[in-house]
Design a protein that fits this description.
The complex is a heterodimer of chains A (276) and B (368). Chain A has 276 residues and is mainly alpha-helical. Chain A contains 11 helices and no strands. Chain B starts with a helix and ends with a helix. Chain B has 17 helices and 10 strands. The chains are: A mainly alpha (276), B alpha/beta (368).
């Protein structure tokens, strides 16, 4: 830390402040006994109790988590396939078109994506009777569509960096293409898949606009509940929920960090013993 | 082979689930604003009728409109605000109500229904649920400090008289940034039709436009939500705003215990009325159940229960005796009959009028 300039430290401090101060305020206010989100009264846990009693919010949380999980998983599979084709299939007619089409949802305004998917679903049900009802399934399709674009970008850049001679070596030693992919390529790009999955998970959890358009009965997601309650004033229950989510994420991040650093330590110790 | 069997089993199971679902339960799918119904109302309805309620929420009229116009929303009951609904009625997205299944329909306030029939001819498609007004919210102590003890606090004069507003600008004035509503109020104040479709009322040096232009320099800002916090915090002392928002400012100030007391009035000359309406989309699947649900909500005790929860007045006349005294006696929520008779609704105007109005509004705000 000695060679870090004062300026850098200040900038770092501001960065952390802007990132974490709002969350801190939100966590503090989740213990506020007042009905209003912006006025402090007393310390209390009452909004946590209320939160778990609120079936609408709890079911929306469940819908959102399920949706995010399935969207991210499907997006990773499809996105990786698309990235592989773009990186490995060599030159084929329409490669540029395909490449830009895959990533188009990145730059498309959400309203446009949402509305066009809604119109597509309506047109589909009118012409061949499916999907009969919009809901979880249609939101899932919509989320996979735009999450996939993000995964493709993440995985493509990893594939571009990867040393192809490793694959070639495996094939020289007699592995077929599938075996090479599973035992060589996949482990190398795995970090990209994980970060792609996490990115897709958060994007899906976050999305309000697209989900609003393509949702149907009993598929209200968490952002939809939060935004619709703004009209009659936000309830501190939302603060309580956000606090729980932040703490969960932090705990998971710390746990991951702890486990990986412990592994690192044992590995190093192992190396030391070997050297002795 | 094994995977094929699993697939078959899954399909069979799915089919089984679907068919038992269809047989066992009657449902109604409701799409409403969030926190906009009494806490136990749905449970009571389910217990009484055996119809299961699927309750979903939306956050803006625009989202609802998008879905309604695209068709096949999947919902049986939706709740647009009246001006949106009137446009949607013209687009033909609603099913005419079957009044024979709505035994409580006659319990709705007659004058109210007449008012609504301008937007929903013959009250064919919509049932009013809750309503509110666009009036004046103010900090009584500060206003009296500026304008003197005996200033009349029940009239549009308070903010539409230039000399009053000039003085009030010292303690801060906010107007809604909603051209249709503010302009309609000005037209109404000048004794004209608030829904005038005469282009002369909006163009050149029309009296309403001149009035607003002369007031604009004294208006601290035009904004449609900032005034809630500012009223409660004492940054402004008067605001032309929506009843629900000002009630929130009232509660905020009371909670903060900062010595600020906010009042809301519906001026005696009359004010704009907004209504959230129930409608049944044309392609609803559970029409029978939707009618049962709407009829249930028009029961006086149930309507009162909703009002007691969300603090908006409902148009079911007989519900009043079940409404909490605190709400019932608040004239800013339940205005007296003579004021109520003067409330008016906003109609959908031709595109030409909208354009001229928007231009006039820009001129007013920029002070040209």
């Amino acid at each position: 830390m000695a060679n870090v300039s004062k300026f850098t430290k200040i900038v770092l401090g501001f960065g952390f402040f802007f990132l974490y101060a709002p969350m801190l305020v939100l966590i503090i206010y989740s213990f506020n006994s007042s009905e209003r989100v912006n006025i402090w009264a007393d310390f209390s846990f009452k909004w946590y109790v209320e939160l778990f009693r609120d079936d609408a919010i709890m079911s929306a949380v469940w819908v959102s988590l399920k949706l995010a999980f399935f969207s991210a998983s499907a997006a990773v599979i499809l996105g990786t396939l698309a990235a592989l084709v773009l990186a490995r299939a060599g030159k084929f007619t329409g490669k540029t078109v395909f490449g830009s089409l895959v990533t188009a949802p990145l730059v498309m305004p959400e309203v446009i994506t949402g509305l066009s998917l809604l119109l597509l679903f309506v047109a589909m049900v009118n012409s061949f009777g499916w999907p009969q009802e919009r809901g979880f399934l249609t939101i899932w399709i919509a989320h996979v569509t735009f999450c996939m674009a993000y995964v493709t970008v993440v995985v493509s850049s990893r594939l571009a960096e990867m040393d192809r001679s490793l694959e070639e070596a495996a094939m020289d030693l007699g592995a077929n293409k599938i075996k090479t992919f599973i035992f060589i390529t996949l482990p190398i790009i795995l970090p990209a898949l994980v970060s792609g999955w996490l990115l897709a998970f958060t994007l899906s959890l976050d999305d309000l606009v697209i989900a609003s358009f393509v949702s149907g009965p009993s598929s209200t997601t968490l952002p939809m509940i939060v935004f619709s309650s703004v009209r009659l004033g936000l309830s501190p229950k939302i603060n309580a929920l956000a606090t729980i989510m932040i703490l969960t994420v932090l705990t998971a991040a710390f746990a991951a960090y702890y486990i990986s650093s412990r592994e690192e330590r044992t590995r190093r110790q192992g190396e030391l013993i070997n050297e002795d | 082979m094994k995977s094929k069997q699993t697939t078959l089993a899954v399909f069979a199971l799915a089919g089984l689930l679907a068919s038992t679902n269809a047989l066992a339960e009657k449902v109604v799918k409701v799409y409403n604003w969030s926190d906009y119904i009494g806490a136990d109302v749905i449970e009571k309805f389910e217990a009484e009728t055996g119809i299961k309620v699927t309750y979903d929420v939306f956050d803006s009229n625009e989202v609802l409109e998008g879905k309604l116009l695209a068709g096949r929303t999947g919902y049986d009951v939706v709740v647009p605000t009246i001006d949106f609904m009137s446009r949607q009625i013209q687009a033909g997205v609603f099913l005419p109500l079957d009044k024979s299944k709505l035994s409580n329909f006659s319990g709705l306030d007659a004058s109210f229904m007449e008012n609504l029939s301008k937007l929903d001819p013959g009250n064919k498609y919509g049932i009013p649920y809750m309503w509110g007004t666009t009036g004046i919210g103010f900090n009584e102590a500060k206003v009296k400090e500026v304008l003197g003890e005996d200033v009349p606090l029940d009239s549009w004069d308070l903010i539409f008289k230039k000399e009053n507003l000039e003085k009030l600008s010292k303690c801060g004035v906010a107007f809604l940034d909603a051209p249709t509503e503010v302009y309609a109020a000005a037209l109404h104040y000048l004794g004209k039709d608030p829904n005038s479709e005469d282009i002369k009322d909006y163009q050149g040096s029309a009296p309403a436009k001149e009035l607003l232009k002369s007031l604009a320099p004294s208006v601290t800002y035009f904004h449609s939500s900032k005034y809630i916090d500012d009223l409660a915090g004492g940054e402004i002392c008067v605001s032309l705003g929506w009843s629900g928002d000002i009630a929130q400012a009232q509660a905020d100030a009371a909670e903060a215990d900062n010595g600020i007391e906010i009042s809301y009035i519906i001026p005696k000359e009359g004010a704009l009325l907004w209504v959230d309406m129930f409608g049944i989309p044309k392609d609803a699947e559970n029409v029978e159940e939707a009618h049962a649900f709407l009829n249930f909500l028009m029961k006086p005790e149930i309507a009162a229960e909703n009002t007691n929860e969300i603090w908006y007045p409902n148009p079911v006349t007989a519900s009043l005796e079940f409404v909490d005294e605190e709400i019932k006696s608040d004239e800013s929520i339940y205005p007296p009959a003579d004021v109520k008779a003067k409330l008016y609704t906003a109609t959908v105007k031709p595109a030409k009028i909208d354009r001229v109005l928007n231009r006039a509004w820009t001129e007013i705000k920029t002070g040209q």
